[in-house]
Amino acid sequence: MAIIVNHFRRREGKDPEAFGIAAYEYCRAARTNPGTQSCRYYWVNLDLIVIQTEAESFEVFDRPPTPEAAKASFALQDLALIAQTERWQEPRDAEAGYRLGGR
Description:
36% strand; elongated
């Protein structure tokens, strides 16, 4: 399983309610990408939302998004900046990569 965690910081002067709705719509649209297993968002505080997306593999994240997902991504980024992105993988997959590297 592959996980991407994005931290979105609300742009100054943008409406917090619109920010939350955009995050919700982003998650709904992200689930339309084939191979995406889940996408959920969490409020950290009024200015920060974290979105966690799980997929079968990192290949899912590297493919072009569906039109719905692309539209929702741009709408969210009109309201917020991506402050941080983390790519998480299960220990088994990380070890397989390590072994593939000849270790």
